[in-house]
Write a structure and sequence with these properties.
Length: 197
């Protein structure tokens, strides 16, 4: 019985179609002794201005599809000079405009401040518990894309904490995980997951 309880607490399902996200999450949760299993299904992603609402809906939908307790993670890049754009539309904007398109919008813009925000939404069908955890990373939009690691907007995002103005794409996963929005949201999820009653 004891072993069963321990196993239940130390294994978590992550519903995502993005293997980069999974690899980041797997390492962060491993720091807490939690093993992560990727479920390659996508909960419906509603159009909304609030990424927390998007994440919650997506967690409920993904859990309905596979009848497992799981979490999803929704993230976006919010650029100050563009009034928070692309924010909740980051996925679509990445596919259509890409990093080059964002740099074009930022041409001659002096204020390069931006932040990544992440929401982890965990749902347990048994008991219907839904919890969310947030994280953010402050930084700047680079003048040019740099680096080849990571995914999405990583080549144009320089987190404030990194020395030398390096972008996320110029870092190992381990270093990105020191500063990233996703790592922060996942660490607060992990604390809660391990210590809940
Ligand atoms: P899911 O299957 O988990 O939904 P996704 O790639 O669609 O994966 P999101 O909707 O959360 O993920 O992310 C929106 C977009 O924001 C994503 O396509 C990237 O372009 C960008 N993004 C999010 N987190 C990022 C990160 O850590 N580094 C770079 N770009 C990121």
């Amino acid at each position: 019985m004891k072993t069963k309880t321990r196993l239940k607490r130390k294994l978590v399902f992550f519903a995502t179609a993005n293997v980069h996200k999974f690899n980041e999450a797997r390492r962060i949760l491993a720091e807490f002794g939690i093993a992560t299993v990727m479920i390659n299904i996508k909960g419906v992603e509603i159009q909304d201005t609030d990424i927390e609402r998007i994440a919650k809906t997506s967690a409920l939908d993904a859990a309905k599809k596979c009848s497992l307790p799981l979490f999803v993670e929704d993230a976006g890049l919010f650029i100050k000079a563009l009034n928070g754009f692309p924010g909740p539309y980051s996925s679509y904007v990445y596919k259509t405009l890409g990093t080059r398109g964002i740099l074009k919008l930022m041409e001659n813009v002096e204020d390069r401040a931006a932040e990544f925000r992440s929401v982890v939404a965990y749902y347990e069908p048994e008991g219907g518990m839904l919890k969310t955890f947030q994280g953010k990373a402050e930084g700047k939009i680079a003048e040019e894309p740099r680096g080849t690691s990571g995914f999405g907007f990583d080549p144009i995002f320089q987190p404030v904490e990194a020395e030398g103005g390096r972008t996320f794409a110029e870092m190992s996963t381990e270093e990105k995980n020191r500063y990233s929005h996703r790592a922060r949201a996942l660490r607060s999820f992990a604390e809660w997951f391990l210590h809940r009653g």
